[in-house]
Amino acid sequence: MITKERMTECLNKAAELVAQMTPEEKVYQLRNGAPAIDRLGIPSYNYWNESLHGVARAGIATVFPQAIGLAATFDEELLEKVGDTVSTEGRAKYYGQFKYGDHGIYKGLTFWAPNINIFRDPRWGRGHETYGEDPYLTSRLGVRFVKGIQGDDSKYLKAAACAKHFAVHSGPEAVRHGFNAVCNKQDMRETYLPAFKALVKEAGVEAVMGAYNRTNGEVCCGSKTLLKDILRDEWGFEGHVTSDCWAIKDFHGNHGVTKDATESVALAMNNGCDLNCGDIYQYLLDAVDKGLTTWEKIDKALTRVLATRFKLGILGDSKDNKYNEIDYSYVDTDEARELNLKASLESIVLLDNKNGILPLDASKIKTIGVIGPNADNRKALVGNYEGTASEYVTVVNGIREALIGTDTRVMVSEGCHLYKNKMSDLSEPTGDRFAEAKSVCEHSDVVVLCVGLDASLEGEEGDTGNEYGSGDKPNLYLPGLQGRLLEEVTAMGKPVIVVCLAGSALYLDKANEKAAATVLALYPGAQGGRALARILFGKSSPEGKLPVTFYSEKNTLPDATDYSMKGRTYRYMTQKPFYPFGYGLSYTKFEEKIKGIEINNKPVSSDLTIGKGDVLDIYVDVQNTGSYEGGVTVQCYVSFEDNDAPVRQLKGLKKITLAPQAKETVKIILTDASFGLFDEEGILKLNKGSYVVSIGDSQPDERSKELTGTSCCTFKVNVAQTEEL
After folding, report:
1. Element containing residue 349 per DSSP (H, E)
2. Which of 55, 328, 599, 663 could form a disulfide with 623 if both were Cys (CB 3.0 to 4.6 A apart)?
3. Is the peptide bond before 495 cis (omega within 30 degrees of 0)?
């Protein structure tokens, strides 16, 4: 992480440049597409670049699993390696493109990722850009991704990461430009802010992006509460703030909180929005003339923005920048593809495996049928905000590759369209591929049925080709004729493995009821089909865990516009889910046993009492008692025995890989804040009473016990008196 001294140096250098600029030059440097100022040695630069799961929208790059798939790995170390690879390719592409005069959009080193909003509602179209529904998991993965992106140098950033969208933002997409997200102080502090705070205070994230919506009446990109009181004053954020793209126009155009563009830019500038993604900040000239803002504020904002370029070493003398050694040969390397395959393997979640049908034995299969609209769908590999891979391995591709050298035949049918009732306008009847799918089933010994979604059905409002218009899902059912296809295929009497490729929760009740196994591949990246085939045929054991709750058709979801957390996610829902957060099966078995507990490095008895300032070290022996090598995520949940508290909350995790019969001791650290709860005023308190700590490779809920057949290790912790933390 860059030192304080270096930050000050960069700010001073930036301020020297700002002092030499004309008023017009200043305001145009505060737009994402900043023009060159030749007399000051400033080249043109576009701050808008994307790297959600790989360098995006700028040609060939490693396309990792979508963010929701990376979340399913529950692997902090992996996320840092992914971030590091992304920034390596980003550096390589930056130098390659700038060398030949391309300074355009998506070519810079300021990456607007990660998206650390909370996936509170499964219908939200952009949820697959996030790390799921849990603020703790989102914080841990986000921190490590940012560290990977920004590098480990004390003087230079490898690339600049950006925490978005600040804050309280998760749909609905159709109304985001004028929507007011109403959120109480408790939910704000307990759910919507923790990940942003962690990225600022632990990872030193260089930029923060405001959201389109209002939060409690204030436009997020001009919110005094969010940008000044919390981000700057409370958390001490020292980087720059950018608006979401064209969000400042919404102040007067949709939110109606200002009357025109001049008032809008003044509101944004006065409350700490430094950089404008869009083309409206030129109105700052008018805003100063009318006394609505000052050159002092503008100079301060521009100094912060330009300081980022000095930190990156793309302004000023940077001969000692070690990242200058990264040339275009670092793009799309064998090492990056290997890491991508590893990430894909870790992201795939085994939901159901009746009678141990998986893994498949190819020597016993003469013909395998691969059916469904996502069997050969590249879009279902990658989600949105994606780059261009040099190789895409779809499910069909991966299965065929895995069976090279065997006598097993692969037969294929689309089965149905992803969301339409027939494959072409002139086709008849409705479901014009059902007969073909049945014929494939008839001649197959086992069937892999590939259903789900892709980014044409869930994504950002305004994205080209989004069938639902807004990007949100209308419901959680498989779209189009996919539900009927599942019924038709499973009725043929052959063993069916359902593979669901999607970036969000769907109703999988029928798949569980009728199929022999159910696998959730999420959006597994460009190597996804290869990874899935390795798992289907037992070359690797599945180890992914659900980063979101999968609801049952019997569950009732709150209204999508209601930002109260009551009834939402595993932390607050009282209904039994279909597949719980943190759940995922393996081909092997793991046993966890608490080995010892210490408070502040001192062994303690079974009567545990903690107070403010205490740190709890928990040592857990984990053994692989099965016959496959596999990854296991040790999950630690804390629950407070009080009706008003969350049901339980993830407060610790550790991912390890064990060979058959191998054992390892894992250390889980819980601080006093791990037991803290926010009250109605948003104040964190350690409340008097009894807490339950649960440790295992799933939640301690009843549904997880039903699905896994195992229970977590648990113990109680007492707090003698209520204290503010």
Report:
1. strand 349-353
2. 663
3. no
- Which of 250, 282, 315 is the last residue before a domain boundary? 315
Sort 320 into a burial class: Cβ within 10 Å, 0-12 / 13-18 / 19+.
exposed
Gap between the Cα atoms of 435 and 430, Å rounded: 11
Residue-wise pLDDT for 171-212, tens only, equals 999 999 999 999 999 999 999 999 999 999 999 999 999 999
Q: Is residue 356 part of a domain?
A: yes
Per the listing, tokens 């190819």 go with 362
* CATH number of the domain enclosing 631: 2.60.40.10
Tell me whether strands 214-215 and 180-181 are parallel, antiparallel or unpaired. parallel
Task: Kindly state whether residues 293 and 342 are assigned to the same domain.
Answer: no
Instruction: Tell me the CATH number at 504.
Output: 3.40.50.1700
Q: Torsion angle of alpha carbons 357, 361, 364, 370, nearest 10°?
A: 70
d(CA 651, CA 638): 7
Whether the upstream peptide bond of residue 429 has omega within 30° of 0, thus cis, is: yes
Integer Cα distance of 240 and 308 in angstroms: 8
Does 142 share its domain with 227?
Answer: yes
**In 10 A of CB 278, how many CB atoms?**
17
| Residue 656 in domain | yes
Strand order in the sheet with 723-724: 677-678, 684-686, 723-724
Overall number of domains in the chain: 3
Q: Please state, in angstroms and rounded to a whole number, the distance separating the CA atoms of residues 396 and 374.
A: 9
Return the DSSP state at 174: G
Same domain assignment for residues 304 and 391: no
The angle, 0 to 180 degrees and rounded to 10, between the axes of the packed helices 528-536 and 395-402 is 50
Distance of CA 379 to the CA centre of its chain: 18
pLDDT of residue 464: 67
Same domain, 150 and 230: yes
Q: Distance between CA atoms of 375 and 417, rounded to whole angstroms?
A: 11
Amino acid at 391: E
First to last CA, the chain: 27
Q: Which two tokens stand for residue 10?
A: 């960069």
User: What amino acid positions are annotated as catalytic residues?
Assistant: 244, 458
CA 130/CA 164 separation, integer angstroms: 10
Q: How many CA atoms lie within 13 A of 508 on its CB side?
A: 29
In the DSSP assignment, the letter for residue 207 is E
Report residues of the chain scoring pLDDT below 50: none
- Quote the radius of gyration of the chain (alpha carbons, Å): 26
